[in-house]
Automatic annotation (TrEMBL):
This is Probable nicotinate-nucleotide adenylyltransferase. GO terms for biological process: NAD+ biosynthetic process. Residues 15-173 form the Cytidyltransferase-like domain. InterPro entries: Cyt_trans-like, NadD/NMNAT, Rossmann-like_a/b/a_fold. The gene is nadD. Its EC number is 2.7.7.18. The lineage of its organism: Bacteria, Bacillati, Actinomycetota, Actinomycetes, Micrococcales.
Amino acid sequence: MSERQHSDRPLRLGVMGGTFDPIHNGHLVAASEVAAEYDLDEVVFVPTGQPWQKADKQVTSAEHRYLMTVIATASNPRFTVSRVDIDREGATYTRDTLLDLRAQRPDAELFFITGADAMSQIMSWRDIDQVWDLANFVGVSRPGYVMSDLGRDNVSQLEIPALAISSTDCRERVAADKPVWYLVPDGVVQYIAKYGLYTES
Ligand code: ATP
Ligand code: MG
């Protein structure tokens, strides 16, 4: 049990889903800010399997994305990484992610974290009515996107420091031989170079 976890309340578990192709500092700041604001005991990063909303696009192998996520989060004692989505067959649906995490951590209260762009797509999720009952939702601000107020009491919004970083931009920068230092953690810069990721666009 972590120091700040109060024994009289359930574990508060943040869930940060993403493609993480690659993970970048915008993801890490979002998780850190929500953890502080909502007094979370832990944030679990969950790299997607084959992302259904990106099925038309080329996505780096799940193992590379998983390992970059592990490297990026290793230094934070409150950050962990889950394989539930990459080990499940088929496309990733948030409902399955939340059900699997609940099965693993039945006593935890879940806080699903999304950026403003993903939040505005939330209504297109499969099984959305079931998804609402599985977790609280925290939408964080993201440069270039307007946060939509979904008007539900288990959905809240948090303004976080604006980092205009996207994985798409990081991939394009690597392909164009531009630096990604300080956009992604140092270990991720080196991992990308080591395995020659994103060099073919
Ligand atoms: P891509 O460009 O490949 O879509 P991305 O940067 O959007 O990558 P994702 O893995 O798609 O990253 O996003 C995972 C989650 O992190 C989403 O909820 C997304 O809204 C959020 N997110 C990503 N970048 C930021 C950022 N700079 N600030 C706030 N939230 C972010
Ligand atoms: Mg995205």
